[in-house]
Amino acid sequence: MADKHPMIGRVLADDYKIVSFLGRGGMGSVFSARQLSLNRQVAIKLFPTCDMTTAELQRFEREIATMATISHANIVTVYHRDKFGDPPTLFYAMELMEGGSLRNYLNQNGKMLPNNVLRLARPVAEGLYYAHQKGCIHRDIKPDNLLFDRNYRNLKVADFGIVKRKSDASITKTQAMVGTFVYASPEQMHWYETDENVDELELDERADQYALGVVMYEMICGCPPYQAKNMVSLMKSLNEPPVPLSERVGVISPSLNWLISTMISRPRDERFSSDEELLAAMDSVELEVAASVSTRVLLPKQSATIAPTASKKSLSETEKQFIQNLQTVTNNESSEVIRKYKRILLISLAILFSLIAVIGLYELFLHNKIITRKIPVVANVQYDVTPPADYTKPQIYIESYVANAQKIPIVAQTRIKPGSYTIFIDFPGYTCLQNKSTITVTKEQNTLLLNINFVAKKRLVNTEVTDIATKQQVTPASLKIDGKKVQGEFLLKPGTHKVDLYFHSHEEIHSDIVVTPAESPVQLEFYLRPLREIILNLDTVVQKVDGSYYPVEVWVDNVPLDEKYYRYDVKKSRLHCFIKVPSHAKNIMLQSGYFYQKVSIKEIYLLNDLPNIDVERLLKHLASIAKREDLSLQVEKLLGNDLEKIQSLPQQQKQMLYKFLVSLLEGENPNLQDPSWKLRLSLSKAEAKEAEYFKKLLTIDDFDENLRQWKSFSKKYSQSVFASRALKQVEYYQKVVNYRKILQKSVKDCYLSLSEKRTIFNLKSKIADEDVKKIHLVVKKYLKQVNCGESLEQMLSEK
């Protein structure tokens, strides 16, 4: 039987009790759990961070926070995020999808019917559309990340922006491809051909569209369009068109084949340009496929015949004659019936043609009368991004199929005759799905309602930033739009976007910009403030026990400064720092290990040492030292160099350090030579006083006085850390005194019996040799006084 997973039964964040282990992926382990506060089943995903840097850890937490803001019926909901342990293990609680992944379903059941594929894929596309509007690109759509509910009726998208594996190098910046390569879009694998960073390429919603198309292809065919064992062979196969659906599954709807072929087009400009266009196409294809399925009739094969049952014996002559007579009677009767109904049919047809002629004449009269009536046209205009109030208005025209017809502008009170028309729309900055589409107006209509949907075009953005004050162009060191790093010129959807700009010589910019619909490029413009450069030389260089140096951290106005704005090195036991800070900065703090110094920018000249101790960091550092010997060395270094700094700490922080040492040394006997005990005693006046008394008793030479003093100490300090050791001293000196008394009493007659020798030898074995010698000297003096004939050695001999 497999061992029980150590996480089973554990409670995370005081609310999530781990129930069972579900599986392990490349990025973490998944468990089912019960949320105690709400009594519901959830899924827990764990991400160990032992291989992450601090910056990666912070970026992961920001991405999980972004995931928690995505709330959609077709995206797995993230309920909670947290971490535990040291080093921390990150986790998040999410909606439990009991149906498992689409991958498991396909492995067990094989391919699916096209109408079911469209029914399941449409909500997934809606969920991705919602996420894309939030500025999130999934980048890893595949059957493993699409999960079924309990009834296998709906699919939901999982793992939005999850932290990458160790090979990814970082959270949002990686030299490895994002996404599983079989489902990844060609632009995601562009790094493989050009050795460029994939996040520095412009990925948009069309990357997820491509992956969803590959998944739909696999759902219908049972395999992806491109099959390869590694990325090299995949890159080669991508140069060839995929195998058409019709060759894999036989007859298939042409519209469905067009839909999926468009979605998995290698040039992304040949895919659907937006999520709205993709959803509209899926709706049309779903209707057509559903109609073809509902009207499908199964016909028998043309060659099928009904064979007569062979008889084991031939019919008798009487039976044959009966059958012939029966057939003759039947044929005669049926011929008579047919002739009768032919006459009725001819009369009915004559009456029907007469009625048709009358109705036709009547319709022609009505048509000539009604055709002149014009139908009013009403345009219902919808925008995905509302244009500004002063923006130009859309121009909507319709043109009849009649030769030399003029375009009719659609304005208030426009009326048109029944007939067929083409819609023409002109609106700078927008595209329209209804442009150049055909409509038919019938005479029965009271009003023609034109539903016009405008989708704002993406605008070109130049990454050069204009300084409003100087009108100069400045190239940023890094640019992020909505949390995504961009480089070079790129396209941006109109709307409100978060911009993060980082410069080499100017302060960072974190702001929202509003991009309005237009045809012209977008120019980023801000007031830029130059950075102030600070050079520091410190006498103190903080070293670890192994001789290496602790990294230096810089904080400006209580916010950690990004490493790209400072550098440092060590030369001749001095620390040299070069720091760039904003011009409005008020204070600065340098931290190395658990030492720090904080000063105002005006008093920067005072920052030449790191005299303060960060107790919390010190405790974390001491707790991370596994070997007791290494811990003693580290504490000994503290006592030798920084005891004054420790003594000058506030009482509350000294108490924190003292409690840590109490916990660390729990179960150990006091060792006055151990550095950890020395540091502990220096932090407690009461224990320091007890230690002084203890050391004083160790210097007493008289056995009886020793016994008396140790008994007094044990009684007075029964709750002391030295109490157990004092009791041992009492027990020992009781044995020493007993040995002395028994030995003195036994040698009075200058003779030791065998039983006395045994008692003496038993007591002697429990006493230190040094103390035995002292007692023997006293006894020998007594033997000289009484003039015994034998020496003590002779008496104690075994003979």
Automatic annotation (TrEMBL):
Matching Pfam families: Pkinase (PF00069)
PROSITE patterns named in the record: PROTEIN_KINASE_ATP, PROTEIN_KINASE_DOM, PROTEIN_KINASE_ST
Annotated ranges, domain Protein kinase: 16-285
Domain of life according to the entry: Bacteria
Stored InterPro entries: Kinase-like_dom_sf (IPR011009), Prot_kinase_dom (IPR000719), Protein_kinase_ATP_BS (IPR017441), Ser/Thr_kinase_AS (IPR008271), Ser_Thr_kinase (IPR053235)
Record: residues binding ATP: K45
Family annotation (CDD domains): STKc_PknB_like (cd14014)
One GO cellular component, as annotated: cytoplasm
GO molecular function, one term: protein serine/threonine kinase activity
Keywords: ATP-binding, Kinase, Membrane, Nucleotide-binding, Serine/threonine-protein kinase, Transferase, Transmembrane, Transmembrane helix
Membrane spanning residue stretches: 344-365
PANTHER family (UniProt xref): MITOGEN-ACTIVATED KINASE KINASE KINASE
Protein name per the record: Serine/threonine protein kinase
UniProt organism field: Uabimicrobium amorphum
